[in-house]
Write a structure and sequence with these properties.
This protein is α+β, with helices and mostly antiparallel strands and 190 residues long. The protein has five helices and ten strands, in the order H-H-H-H-H-E-E-E-E-E-E-E-E-E-E.
Amino acid sequence: MSDLDLLTQSLARNVKHWRAVRGFTLDVLAARAGVSRGMLIQIEQARTNPSLGTVVKIGDALGISITTLLDYERGPKVQIVPAERAVRLWSTDAGSYNRLLAGAEAPGPLEMWDWCLMPGENSPSEPHPAGTVELIHVTAGELTLTVDGVDHQVPAGASASFEASSPHTYANQGTVPMEMIMAVSVPPVP
């Protein structure tokens, strides 16, 4: 089974599981996530490979991390994620990417990401649920972080935190690759 097949199967199983845990019908989850009921059916039947945006919306609606949605091995309380097992969820032909390094439910979803943006590239993000916080540490280059329409420059060695319930964009307006580590904390679903 390929990695993509394994992730598709895991996503199907985990969406069904967490939808049942939360007591959500397909219609309720579709409305909360802003995705169609048909898309959820295809996901739960492992018949589609949804976009990163769709997976994020479903995770946010369920109040769980992407790590939990894609988890195919429920393990012990200590989990080591070898470098080769980090999940690359987004990439461009120019070499930009993000990788989900690790995640936990503590008490809501908590994720750690590795990002690289090549010069001239950007990645917009829709608002997350109220109370979501992102922490960023730039390790190379300079990040242009736009939150609710306002640009903020974050140079190498600097860190930033912000409430991610507004539209935001990560961009590299420089001439060298920008690399950062990002943590995302989403509040639990009430």
